[in-house]
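Sample entry (91 residues):
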Amino acid sequence: MFVYWDADCKSDGTDYDSDMSKSNLEDWVNTLTAAEIIGCTEGRVRQLAADGSIRGAKFNLRAWMILRTDAEKYRDIERHAGRRRISEKLG
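Predicted structure, serialized as tokens:
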């Protein structure tokens, strides 16, 4: 889930104060810090936030703030690089 902040309103029509009020400002990091935590690029962090893999707040066209705990959880998930082999899909 992501939240879009604008000076007046959010694009999804929900209350933008609700997500931020549930956590402290220190719980949020920028995309550079999230990328360092996860071990990927800032662009990948933006993709993860946009598709809902990690929670983030979008402040304008490119500026995201990411929940530090979500970045750490995503980092700790065991993933395999590349496509899975057919034998892995069947097994």
